[in-house]
Amino acid sequence: MMSLVSTGGHSLASGPLPNFRTTPPPRRRPSLPYLKTPRAAIVESRPVRVPPATRDNGNGGLVLVSAGAAGGGGGGGGSRAEDMQAEARAMARAVDAPVFNPELIASKYGRRPIEVVRRMLEILTAIGSFGLKLWLDERNGVFDQNKKVRATELRQIFTRLGPTFVKLGQGLSTRPDICPPEFLEELSELQDDLPTFPDEEAFACIERELGVSLDSIYSTITPSPVAAASLGQVYKAKLKNSGQTVAVKVQRPGIEKAIGLDFYLIRGLGGLINKYVDFITSDVVALIDEFVFRVYQELNYVQEGQNARRFKKLYADKEDIMVPDIFWEYTSGKVLTMEWVEGVKLNQQEAIEGQGLKVLDLVNTGIQCSLRQLLEYGYFHADPHPGNLLATPEGKLAFLDFGMMSETPEEARFAIIGHVVHLVNRDYEAMAQDYYALKFLSPDVDVTPIVPALQNFFDDALNYTVSELNFKTLVDGLGAVFYQYPFNVPAYYALILRSLTVLEGLALYADPNFKVLAASYPYFAKRLLTDPNPYLRDALVELLFKDGRFRWARLENLLEQGSKDRDFSAKDALQPVLKLLLAPDGEELRRLVVKEAVYVSEAVVLTSVVDTYNSIPTVLRPPILNGNGRGPLPMTDAEVLRIREFRDLVVRVWGLLQTSEDFDPALFQPILQVLQQPEARSLGGRVIGGVTQRLAARLLQQVLRTPPPVPT
Question: Is 572 a catalytic residue?
Answer without folding.
Answer: no
